[in-house]
Amino acid sequence: xxxxxxxxxxxxxxxxxxxxxxxxxxxxxxxxxxxxxxxxxxxxxxxxxxxxxxxxxxxxxxxxxxxxxxxxxxxxxxxxxxxxxxxxxxxxxxxxxxxxxxxxxxxxxxxxxxxxxxxxxxxxxxxxxxxxxxxxxxxxxxxxxxxxxxxxxxxxxxxxxxxxxxxxxxxxxxxxxxxxxxxxxxxxxxxxxxxxxxxxxxxxxxxx
Length: 208
Description:
By secondary structure, the chain is mostly helical.
């Protein structure tokens, strides 16, 4: 049987991959290509690097793919699609620190990118940095109070860290209200039952 911590890590990995799919969509077609007459030599070079990275990724050569995507980014390819291609590679290889090293500079320049910030929160949690993860989730919810998945992940982290059960309940109720048939609806209901048992035990203990 899978331990609670192992189950949590499997769930967090699911969350991270789902988040990056939401952010990125397919690798092809992430950014528009300038008309041929407007393409500079630098633009063409950046596109060539990106295409080389895509081809290497399809061949399973992740080291070479990462190298080409990073070159594309440095040579003027649209940053978000290049970044997300890099993050896919890093997450597929469980290289969370490397993924953060790519994501954090972009996020500092684009602080309103809520989906990327949510993805960064999953990486922090995967590295065991729960306070940093919760901080990023608070930022996501400050800009979008109806970000259902951020409510679910907040509840999961608060429950794991034995923080306020009332806060866990608030986030879970909000998630289920926003997304009652969502990807994490089953886990949310299970977590809610566990949390309610803890609240009942606390009430019983306080009444003795």
